[in-house]
Amino acid sequence: MTENFPALGGPDCGDFGIRIADDGTWYHQGAPIRRLPLAKLFASVLRREPDGTYWLVTPAERGRIAVDDVPFIAVEMTVAGTGRAQILSFRTNLDDTAEADESHPIRVVTDEATSEPRPYVMIRAGLEARLVRSVFYQLVELGAEETIDDTKLFGVWSKQEFFPLGNLTGVI
User: Fold this and answer.
1) Coil, helix or strand for 140?
2) Predicted model pTM
């Protein structure tokens, strides 16, 4: 799920020399950005285009940045309620929050290199967070089996939406 974000009144400045590493650390010209408020400010104007490019967009200018995987890391999950009505809320390394629902889905992909699951949650408008291992384990503890279209799945509920974490069909 992505949105188009036109340049807002300013020129395209090309590459800003900013990179978000796989662990969520922001870098400028190879040096880590150590001031959390500055990283949060940049994150507040971060956009992802349908072609997968990431941009910092302000009324004055816009510039591309590099993102190794996704721009955020989900470092905390809270649970309110139980069953299908439970609400799973995620907080990122930059203090953005999102509740898993139709607009903020949870997805799991298998890392081709390691065969390990890589879980993600949509934070906002095409910007995802990868769940840290401890948050993923917490999520798995809440899992339940559901059969959808003759496929047995293992997943979690949040706000009446089911999010598959894995396929159990054919598993002994």
Assistant:
1) helix
2) 0.87
